[in-house]
Amino acid sequence: MKKNQSEKKVPPNAIKNKQELILRQMETLAKIGHWDVDFVNQTLHWSEGVFHILELDPSSMPINLETGFLFVHPDDRERAIEHMKEVLETGIDYDLECRLITTSGKIKSIRSLADVIRNEKNEPLQIVGIFQDITEQREAYETLKQQELRLSTILQSEPECVKVVSPDGILVEMNPAGLQMIEADSPEEAVGQKVENLVNPLDLKYYQSIHNRALQGIKSSTRFRIIGLKGTERWMESTAVPLTNQSGEIMSVLSVTRDISDKVKSEEKLIRIKRNQEALINGTSDLIWSLDSKFRLIAANKAFSDVMSFLLGTAAKEGDSVLIMSQGEAFYEKWKGYYERGLSGESFKTYERFISPITQLEEHREVFFNPIRNAENQITGLACFSKDITDLMAKRMELVASEKRYRALVENGVDVIAILSTEGKAKYVSPSITKVLGYSELDAMHMNLFDFLHPDDVPKIIKRLEEVRSIPQGNSLPSHNFRIKHQNGSWRWVESTITNLIEDENIGGIVDNFHDVTERVFQITAIQTQNEKLKAIAWTQSHVVRNPLAKIMGIVDLIKTGALSHEEERQSLDHLIESAKELDSIIQDIVLKSQRVIVP
């Protein structure tokens, strides 16, 4: 028993993942296989299901297209080739029934459906399809005919619309579900009417297409809108097949149609979301890309594709290696290291500074790497995001430079900037405190303003701190002089301006900006003292000057009368000279006294 269980085990490397196992089981169960043709390389690929149907060994791959057609029954081969040609040239759906001859000589009937993948020029690149072994179905055809009556009963309860239409488009029969979809209250309202009259004129060609193909013996499906008898518009998905008589002549068309209005709305919503996402992703200068475990490009936005195309010298495409040697070996090895870190399971980011190969300008970027994992948590690739932070770095460097300039001004300036609490406690003191008052920043931060304030100035400062709290935010009080004790014990006069920034979330206190004005105060005091002394000298000497001056004025008035004799006049002039000498002596004395008062 254990041996049998062991034999049934699937080798770990035989099937890559659970999905492949399920696909193989489905193909075996349904007797189907999938295939694709690469028209560029002229190669044909079959799944294991196809080989099983043809009784071939899968190791016989690869098989080319010409060899593939050799398995088609000679009587059906030309039709199969022509159908493939018509699908590629006219764009009709690939839908083919034909016979195949297996390697053992068995004849099997198969049904094949496929879709064509085209490039931007509408040129076919690849066709991907499936086919199913319908040999048993064909053999059971007659048996199914006998069950027609029973199936008709079943169709009456079918939730999807089932209808029979004559070759000229007249409705022959429709089940209750279909009547409900077209809003007919009874079969008589619909039977005998043109089905085309229910189809939205904009979609009429799609309905006509599957109807005409069914008349040609081709099963096909399409979507179109109908407008019900009561005006309701619905999206329908319909599959049409021919109905034949016992002679194989097509007598009518059978269609199975279901309401897909909700599905279409969901699809349209997803399309809008996808387009919006693409617009957002492609509208940024940031680079977004993903790669597989072999460093091959999976997907990328326009910004990354442009950069990669520039480095490659050709348009970048899915599958290209994202490791590029054109920027040098160091660049190559660095990015290889990043990718290997991410593919090992690490999520991280790096900072890159470089000269853009496109603009030749310096760029700064943050690059994020995140592993991509499948349902089994295995790493299958890497998602990368490169954020352009050039402007941010420029502003940051500008801010750093500005901060350095500000700090240099603050540290080397003659002004001290302090932030005080409302009680006068220092919250911040600029380094210039050492130059102005001799204290270190640390010492000043542990002191209160009142710790080194002159006792005579304390009341005035208390009043100023109260006043500044009452003025509007950001306003300042007029400057004021007061005395502060220097670290060496001397008293220094400072001129202070305080500003209310208590409510500012970045400051949260009273800003005190002050500088040393001791010499200026001393000079002003000296000038005031000198002025007082000069006033005293001027007041005292003015009385002394008046006596000789009065004599001079009296003698001059006497001479001007002309009543004096020659001798009297000569004596008066002698007195005048003596008074003038006396006045000159007094003036010299005033000058000497004032010179002793005014210090040069």
Question: Would you write up a description of this structure?
Answer:
By secondary structure, the chain is of the alpha+beta class. The chain has 5 domains: 21-139, Beta-Lactamase (2-Layer Sandwich), CATH 3.30.450.20; 158-264, PAS domain (Beta-Lactamase, 2-Layer Sandwich), CATH 3.30.450; 279-393, Beta-Lactamase (2-Layer Sandwich); 411-516, 2-Layer Sandwich (Beta-Lactamase); 525-597, Helix Hairpins. It has 20 helices and 21 strands. The strands form 4 sheets. It has a 6-stranded antiparallel sheet. It has a 5-stranded antiparallel sheet with strand order 8-7-11-10-9, with helices on both faces. Strands 13-12-16-15-14 form a 5-stranded antiparallel sheet, sandwiched between helices. β19 (480-485) and β20 (491-501) form a beta hairpin. α19 (518-560) packs antiparallel against α20 (566-597). It starts with a helix and ends with a helix. It comes from Leptospira terpstrae serovar Hualin str. LT 11-33 = ATCC 700639. Keywords: Kinase, Phosphoprotein, Transferase. Residues 402-468 form the PAS domain.
